[in-house]
Design goal:
eight-stranded antiparallel sheet, single chain, 26% strand, 359 residues, 39% helix, five-stranded antiparallel sheet, alpha+beta, elongated, 20 strands
């Protein structure tokens, strides 16, 4: 009986062995601890990976910052270089301006010396805020008349003035125009025509303060204008647009043109070798303007001047461009409150336009 029980016990022992092994394993190892450990191990690996990624991002950021710093440094160097170049350019420009002013002054001094040698010292000088005017007698040059050398400090100092500020009027003397505008200098300007009632209207083109008051494309007439820089602009004007494009502010018409770039131009046959009172305008080679009035038609005083003679004399004066304005009985030279010349008619003639210089 006992051997049978022994066999039975061994049989059950074999059956229970796996369970007993499992129980033994449970007693030796806690599954929760294992899972926790594995979780910690996974978290550690993820943290390390994240740390590596952050480290790479930091390295990339540092690299980018170094590149930005290099670009900023390069821009700073370029800015310093450009600033230095800008300062050098400004210094160069300032030197050029100083040199230009010096050369301009030297040129003006030379011109004054030439004119004084030819005409004597000025008989009148006006140094205003807007202009400098020096007046010479032409007697030393063999003529009864006057010349003014004008330097404009402000282009607005020069104005074309219509008689009574109207296109059609009974006219206005040069002296009256000079006095009513407060001018230091005034001369008669453009040509004109008269109707049966004695009303005067300008010939050709008339521009006053940038406004076109009369217009004609008559190619026989010469237009004498002044632009917004106060420079003499003489040209054949065929359209109103040309006046605007060239910035012309003041102007009037007559004929003929006498000098262009210092060279004499042909005198029209109807005007050739005629000795008359003259009003002339032009500019010297240094940019200063000149106006001339020469008396004529007065026995014992002056017979006048031909345009051919005037051309040669203007060249001697170093004039570059010159124009003939309305002459004859219209020629008048007003300076510093007085009419200096002797008009051919014994008194001033009312004219349609006058050129005035403000002090």
């Amino acid at each position: 009986m006992q051997p049978v029980l022994g066999k039975v016990n061994r049989f059950f022992l074999f059956l229970l062995a796996p369970a007993l092994g499992f129980l033994l394993a449970l007693t030796l190892t806690n599954p929760a601890d294992k899972l926790q450990a594995e979780g910690l191990k996974l978290a550690s690996e993820q943290s390390k990976q994240r740390a590596d990624e952050l480290g790479q991002q930091v390295d990339d950021t540092k690299k980018t910052l170094r590149e930005v710093e290099a670009v900023v440094a390069d821009l700073r160097d370029r800015a310093k270089k450009e600033q230095k170049e800008y300062e050098e350019q400004n210094k160069h420009i300032d030197n050029l301006l100083v040199t230009s002013r010096s050369q301009t002054q030297k040129s003006a001094d030379v011109l004054d010396t030439i004119l004084s040698n030819m005409l004597g010292e000025p008989i009148g000088q006006s140094f205003g805020n807007q202009s400098i005017v020096k007046v010479y007698s032409l007697q030393e040059a063999g003529y009864r008349g006057y010349m003014a050398k004008v330097r404009l400090k402000d282009p607005s100092a020069l104005k074309m003035v219509l008689a009574n500020d109207s296109v059609k009027s009974k006219g206005e003397t040069t002296s009256h125009a000079g006095k009513r505008t407060g001018a230091v200098l005034a001369i008669n300007a453009g040509g004109f025509m008269s109707d049966s009632k004695g009303n005067l209207t300008p010939l050709g083109i008339t521009v006053v303060d940038g406004k076109i008051r009369t217009f004609s494309n008559n190619s026989k007439l010469s237009f004498v204008g002044f632009n917004n820089k106060g420079h003499l602009v003489g040209a054949t004007i065929t359209t109103q647009a040309q006046i605007t494009q060239q910035g012309i502010l003041q102007g009037a018409s007559f004929l003929p043109r006498l000098l262009q770039d210092g060279k004499r131009l042909p005198i029209p046959r109807d005007w050739a070798n005629a000795r008359q009172p003259r009003t002339l305008i032009g500019h010297f080679d240094n940019g200063d303007l000149l106006v001339i009035v020469i008396d004529g038609r007065r026995e014992g005083w002056s017979k006048g001047v031909t345009l051919e003679e005037a051309q040669r004399k203007l060249q001697e004066f170093h004039v570059v461009d010159a124009y003939n304005l309305d002459g004859g009985g219209s020629s008048a030279f007003y300076y510093n409150g007085k009419l200096l010349n002797k008009p051919s008619g014994g008194k001033e003639r009312p004219v349609v336009s006058n050129l005035v210089i403000l002090p």
